[in-house]
Amino acid sequence: MSVFAMGFLLVILQPSSGQFPRACANTQSLLRKECCPSWDGDGSPCGELSNRGACQDILLSQAPLGPQFPFSGVDDREDWPSVFYNRTCKCKGNFMGFSCEECKFGFSGLNCTERRLRTRRNIFQLTTSEKDKFLAYLNLAKNTPSQDYVIATGTYTQMNNGTNPMFRNINVYDLFVWMHYYASRDTLLGGSNVWRDIDFAHEAPGFLPWHRVFLLLWEREIQKITGDENFTIPYWDWRDAEDCVICTDEYMGGRHPTNPNLLSPASFFYSWQVICTRSEEYNSQQSLCNATSEGPILRNPGNNDKSRTPRLPSSAEVEFCLSLTQYESGSMDKMANYSFRNTLEGFADPRTAISNISQSGLHNALHIYMNGSMSQVQGSANDPIFILHHAFVDSIFERWLRRHRPMLEVYPAANAPIGHNRENYMVPFIPLYRNGEFFTPSRELGYDYEYLQEPALDSFQEFLIPYLEQARQIWPWLVGAAVIGGIVTAVLSGLILACRKKRAGTSPEIQPLLTESEDYNNISYQSHF
Where does the Tyrosinase copper-binding domain lie (predicted)? Predict the structure, then answer.
C-alpha cells in the first residue's frame, strides 16, 4: 500500500474504542458510580427504548480468592470495576458494548442476528497486497485517536474519589498497549511500597481467556477504523523456527545496520514510540503510566540469555503441551504442575509440565527471545510482533479446547489468584467480560484459524481423540472385566448343569457343590482387577 493511500485512510476514517468510555470519564459518572451511556440509535441509556439493554447493578463474584494477594481495598482493580462504577449497561440478546451499540463477537446485522465466521491466516500465506494492508492498518491505529475511550492517568484516590477526574486521550494502538500495562502493573501501596505478585492477565487461569478478549477487541477496532469488516489478525507459526523470520523490513522490521537493538530505518515501525515501559519509575512515583512517549521500539532477537531460553519452541513441545488433560492445577499460578495453561504460558517445562520459573518455555520463550520491548511484561504490546505471537498462542489454546472438549466447570470457580476466578470480570475492560465466557471454542466467538480448518476425516479424528484417550486409560479395567465375565459365565454354566442333573434325579450328595460354587462366585466379584 502506498504512503499516499495510507495517508488517505488517516484522513477519511473515523476513530473508535478502548477502555474507560469517554462518556463516563467525568465527575458526574464517577460520583454516581454509573456508566450507562445513551445509544445513539434512540437516545436512551443502553438503548433501553429499543430493547437492546438496561442500566443495572453489577453483580460481583463472591467466590474466595487464592492467597497470592494478601490485601483488600488497596488496588482500584479489585472487584473490577466497582471502584469506579457499580452500574453499567447489561445488554440483551446478541447486543454488546458499553452502550449496547455493537453486536456480540460472531454476530452481525442490524439486529445482531446473523452469524459470521472469519478466518485468521498465517502471515506468510497473505499476498503482498494483503500483508501491506495489514502493516498499513497497524500504522493507521498508531496514528488514530480513539473517539470512544480514554485512559486513566491517576488512581481513584488520586482523583479525589471522583471529584477530580484524571483521564487523557490516546491513539487506538497505544490504547491496547496501555490496557495490557494496566492489567499487569504492580499494586501501589503508598510511599515507595509496591506489591509485585499480582497480575490480572498473566500467571493464572485467566491468561488465555484474557488475551483472547484482548485480540478480539483489537481486531474489532481495526475493523471499525478501516471500515474493513473482513479484517482478521494474522498469526506467526513460530514452531521449529531457527530465527526471527518475520524480523525483516518486508514484514515486522529488520535489524538496524549500526545498532542491533533498534529496528531498521526502512521498517514500517522505525519511527514508532513506545509507552508504559518504565515500571520502576511509576512505582517510585506511585503513579500510573500516562502514555507519554518513551523512545523507539527495542528488539534484538536471538541475543537473549541462552541459559533461560536456548531456542524458539518446537513442534514436539507444543504437542506435549496439548496432551495435558488438566487446564489448571494446584496453586493455579506460575508454580502449577501438569497444568496446560501454565505450560503454554511458559512457566512449566514444555517436556515435563513441571514448574520451572528459571526457564522460559513456549509463550514466554518468544518474549524473552525478542530481547527488547517484547521482553518486559507491562510494555510488551508495544512491539507489533506481540499481536502475531498471541494469535498463534490463542490457536494452541483453541486446539486444546477442541481436543479435550472441557465443560465450563473445568475453569476454576474459586481460589484462583485475584481476578482469575471464573465469574470475575476481566481488568480493565468496559464493557464487562467474565473469564468463563471466553473459555469456549473460537467458532462460537466468530473466528477460526486457517490451519485448523482440516478435512472432514482429520476433524473426525480430532473429535475421537479425547474418547480414545479415555479408552486407553480404562483399557486394563476392560480386560479385567472381560476375564471376570468369563469366570462368571463358566460358574453360571456349571450351576445350570448341576440344576439339570438335580432335576434328572441326581443324588443329594452333590448338592454341597452348589454352596461351594456360590462361595467361589462371591470371591470372584470381590477380586481386584
Answer: 202-219, 383-394
